[in-house]
Amino acid sequence: MTWMTHFGLAAAPFSKELADADLWLPPSKLCVVEQLCAAAEAHEQVMITGDDGTGKTTVLRAARQRLQQKFRLTYCHNSTLGKRDFYRQLCLALGLSPKATAASVFYAVSGHVQELRSEQVHPVFLLDEAHLLHQDTLDHLHILLNYEWDSKALLSLVLVGLPELQDRLALRRNRSLYSRIHWRLQVEPLVPADTAAYLRHRLAQAGCDRELFTSDAVAMLHEATHGAMRDIDRIAHTALRAAAAAGHKLVERNVVLAAVGPGGGR
Question: Which of 9, 10, 137, 198 could disulfide-link 4, Cβ–Cβ 3.0 to 4.6 Å?
Fold first, then answer.
């Protein structure tokens, strides 16, 4: 008998392989999605920050469902590249042939943005892990937003990263870019009630219609993870397997504590 069979589960409930339509978001994260969509509608720039594992990518996936019907979305997750290679990556993501020099790839991207304008299409560039952007790329991004003497908003830039992204953008040398970002959003960890609701949702998706975690176990899980969804997934998965191996029908606090381990949840 597998651990999933033991609990009557049709699938592993805390797998990262989850369709966009099955995503669960608490009100605080739904608010960020709404604001991101509003920024795209207004053709404005966005910065989204949050600690590791708090659900930034989940927010982007939820927003993608709403935005992709009206906007041309381009997602870039490798932010560790220098300026030329960054724009080459952007060219490839846009379906353009990357050029040899930094200037040529930049003009290929900016020219494409202007062509989309003539087609009444507004592009949205989503740059994940933006706290890792090279300084030479940051120095140049505000130029990508400057069209027709800075009088036309032809592109929306969404920078997503850890809290240090805001610290970097607030530096004097990045002021030109930072001043163009009117939407500065933060993804917060789950609160205790959110953690309980999240566990129920993921278990229900896996075919479980009953509580598997005791209230003390849920409280322990939230305390150990500080409401970070990625850590909740990892520890809840480990605790379920351990409880099944011990023949338990419920996951108790001590099982979660053992799954957390000596290093803590985070």
Answer: 9
